[in-house]
């Protein structure tokens, strides 16, 4: 199957949306992760809630440490989101082509989303593990990406892979629900407008935000015990941890982490940190989809322009990467500053021809 331009635009918009939402909410994510990773020892816990994590950072003058691991997290977020959105869009179109259907059902949509998510997790798991360890390290003691991974074995770089694959059901449910709601809303919008446009329709920012929040909340509640187990498996060990080595090693498996939570914190321990998790995931997903919808049209327009003018570049196999990074940079400026570089680009490539037409 030939490289699909619409899939590339979809994947790029999704990746940029993920990058921006991750950066904006990263301090909240750090507080949440450190709170989730802590397990009670002898009935005592260091943090009562996520606010205690924030207060510790402030009191120790380590507020900047709330951003530890941000670079690795952004790389992981951008790469995984790009792979997921492109894979999801690609397999959806492939299914429609093979089946001959005009639309895709909820069940098929869910299966496609899970497959795309599983491939994404397998490829990006070392990045996810490294960012989690850096994020949950003691304030001011986070290590770099390579040092974090090189301290353990290669297999430890894939800590939590099994549970991450299981958790692909979370975004799969969310994106499936969002896509179905979006299609219904856009059908109503197209009927009311009765206009045919050259670029894909998109939701308003507010509609995308609401749909993203609603579709994510339920999936998060259902899968939360596994989410906390994943954080515990991937978390860095605190220097003041009083647990023995055998117990720490046992917690690096799904069954071991579930048993440890049940033994030390009881039933409610499975839902420790649920509130900040819902807040973070709902805001993150809603922001991601809102930004994606906002920049999807401009990404489409720029991609058309870049492909149209690709013949002006040397055939060295570098046009696509340059186009991709160009789209990312211009979309970031468009999202942050509202600068329409695409309008300036089109004006530069298509100057007014009033005088020439007059002479003709």
UniProtKB/TrEMBL annotation:
Keyword annotations for this protein? Antiport, Membrane, Peroxisome, Repeat, Transmembrane, Transmembrane helix, Transport
Organism of this sequence:
Anisodus acutangulus
What is the official name of this protein in its record? Uncharacterized protein
GO MF annotation, one: antiporter activity
Q: Which family does it belong to?
A: Belongs to the mitochondrial carrier (TC 2.A.29) family.
| Residues in Solcar repeats | 5-94, 104-184, 203-298
Q: For this UniProt entry, what is the primary localization, expressed as one broad class?
A: membrane
Mind telling me which residue stretches traverse the membrane in this protein? Answer: 322-342
Would the keyword Transport turn up in this protein's UniProt record? yes
Q: Which InterPro entries match?
A: MCP_dom_sf (IPR023395), MCP_transmembrane (IPR018108), Peroxisomal_Ade_carrier (IPR045900)
Q: Name one GO cellular component term.
A: peroxisomal membrane
**Highest taxon of source:** Eukaryota
Q: Name one GO biological process term.
A: fatty acid beta-oxidation
Q: Where in the cell is it found?
A: Peroxisome membrane
Extract the Pfam families matched here. Mito_carr
Lipid bilayer topology? Multi-pass membrane protein
């Amino acid at each position: 199957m030939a490289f699909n331009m619409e899939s590339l635009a979809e994947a790029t918009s999704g990746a940029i949306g993920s990058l921006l939402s991750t950066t904006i909410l990263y301090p909240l994510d750090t507080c949440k992760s450190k709170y989730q990773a802590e397990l009670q020892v002898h009935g005592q816990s260091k943090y009562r809630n996520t606010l205690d994590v924030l207060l510790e950072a402030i009191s120790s003058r380590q507020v900047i440490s709330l951003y530890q691991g941000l670079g690795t997290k952004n790389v992981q977020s951008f790469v995984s989101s790009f792979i997921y959105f492109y894979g999801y869009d690609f397999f959806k179109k492939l299914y429609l082509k093979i089946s001959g259907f005009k639309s895709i059902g909820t069940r098929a949509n869910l299966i496609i989303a899970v497959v795309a998510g599983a491939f994404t997790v397998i490829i990006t798991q070392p990045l996810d593990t490294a960012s989690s360890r850096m994020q949950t390290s003691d304030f001011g003691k986070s290590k770099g990406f390579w040092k974090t991974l090189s301290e353990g074995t290669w297999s430890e770089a894939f800590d939590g892979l099994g549970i991450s694959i299981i958790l692909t059901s979370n975004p799969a449910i969310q994106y499936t629900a969002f896509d179905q709601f979006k299609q219904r809303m856009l059908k109503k919008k197209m009927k009311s407008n009765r206009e045919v446009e050259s670029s894909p329709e998109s939701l308003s920012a507010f509609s995308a935000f609401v749909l993203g929040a609603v579709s994510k909340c339920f999936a998060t509640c259902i899968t939360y015990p596994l989410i906390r187990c994943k954080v515990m498996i991937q978390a860095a060990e605190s220097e003041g941890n009083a647990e023995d080595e055998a117990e720490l090693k046992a917690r690096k498996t799904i069954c071991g982490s579930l048993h440890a939570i049940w033994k030390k914190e009881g039933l409610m321990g499975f839902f420790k940190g649920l509130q900040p998790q819902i807040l973070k995931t709902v805001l993150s997903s809603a922001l991601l989809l809102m930004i994606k919808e906002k920049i999807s049209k401009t990404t489409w327009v720029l991609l058309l322009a870049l492909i149209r003018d690709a013949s002006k570049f040397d055939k060295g196999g570098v046009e696509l990467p340059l186009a991709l990074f160009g789209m990312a940079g211009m979309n970031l400026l468009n999202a942050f500053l509202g600068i329409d570089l695409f309008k300036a680009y089109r004006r530069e490539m298509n100057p007014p021809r009033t005088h020439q037409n007059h002479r003709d």
